[in-house]
Amino acid sequence: MSESLGNSNSALERRVLEASDSIPPGKVGRASRRWASSFWRRVAILLAATALILRAVYGWLEGGVWPGDWAGIACGIAAASILLVAAAYGVRRRTRRMSTRLKLGTAAAWLQLHLYGGGLFLFLVALHAGPRWPTGALGWWLWGLAVWVVATGGLGLMIQRLVPRILAAGTSTEAHFDRIGEHVEELRQRAREVAEASDTPIRTLYATSLASAMAAPRRDLGVLLDAGGGRRLDPIDHLRGLLSSEEKGRLDELEQLYRAKLDLDAHFTLQQLLRTWLWLHVPASVFLVLVVLLHIGAVTYY
After folding, report:
1. How confident is the model at residue 289 (pLDDT cuts 50, 70, 90)?
2. N or C, which end of the chain is more exposed by having fewer CB within 10 Å?
3. What is the pLDDT of residue 45?
4. How is residue 103 annotated by DSSP?
């Protein structure tokens, strides 16, 4: 069972590394990601500063700013264009092989473009609207979705950076999300066999403290603070000093099985967190693109 855990391709790694076939390994990969981050950060800052200066100068010359003036329209067009480019990252992810063959850029560069483009989009929307609240349902929907999409994007970035560090520091196995249930069942069966072959103290410990925990994968956000679950091994440590050498060997095996189950719970919780985050971000992003297109159509028509 441990070999299958160690050799399985982690769904978490595939999610975090983002199309590793197009990111060079090792130091080259890290250098590529750093270069992409630095480049797109500078581009975003330069564009934001330019837009802010032009908006301020135009407002000073005209005695005020509003969405329908020349500078406001320019910021709106720029915001819509950047949103479409940032949204193209989703298409790039789903066409990795074709994008690699066509040399459309690395996954690292597209990810950074997506991240900084999203922040720049929200900034340009603010410049487009000016210092006033939205008017009408469409304006409120646009603002609300823009803030939601950027906020959930930032949350996703934090999760994708935090989860691998937690798992690397607190667990000793890897597990494909779709096979966690199978691995838990193997652990449960072996733990029950060990308990049934042991004396009363270990059987009692298993029945009262471990059986329910070994039964199925469990969600536990406490793994964000303690992925290894060391604080939950106190009953085992307390019992060890009361057993014979033979029974200590069985208790040690039971402890190893329990630790492996805690590792699987950590993977189950954190990998599911990654998947759940996408439902907060992706549908809202699609809806935001539709609302922006509807806004452009309404402004053009009226």
Report:
1. very high
2. C
3. 93
4. T
Q: Which amino acid is at 275?
A: R
Range(s) of the domain holding residue 185: 138-158+176-302
Q: Which two tokens stand for residue 149?
A: 């999409």
Long-range contacts (CB closer than 8 Å, 24 or more residues apart) made by 22-29 = 22/96, 22/99, 22/100, 22/106, 22/107, 23/106, 23/107, 23/108, 29/108
Q: Check residue 241 and report its DSSP letter.
A: T
Domains in the chain, number = 2
Are residue 67 and residue 154 in the same domain, yes or no? no
Is residue 85 in a domain? yes
Quick one: 113 and 146 in the same domain?
Answer: no
User: Could you read off the pLDDT of 107-157 as tens digits, one per residue?
Assistant: 778 888 899 999 999 999 999 988 888 888 888 999 999 999 999 999 999
Q: How many CA atoms lie within 13 A of 90 on its CB side?
A: 13
Q: Can you give the pLDDT at residue 279?
A: 92
**Spatial separation of the C-alpha atoms in residues 256 and 109, rounded to whole Å:** 42
154 with 118, same domain: the answer is: no
pLDDT of residue 90: 79
pLDDT at 8: 40
Q: How many other CB atoms are there within 10 angstroms of residue 78's CB atom?
A: 19
Among residues 204, 185, 208, the alpha carbon closest in space to that of 196 is found at: 204
**Tokens for 57?**
């100068």
Query: Exposed, middle or buried, 282 (CB in 10 Å: 0-12/13-18/19+)?
Result: middle
Q: Are residues 224 and 258 in the same domain?
A: yes
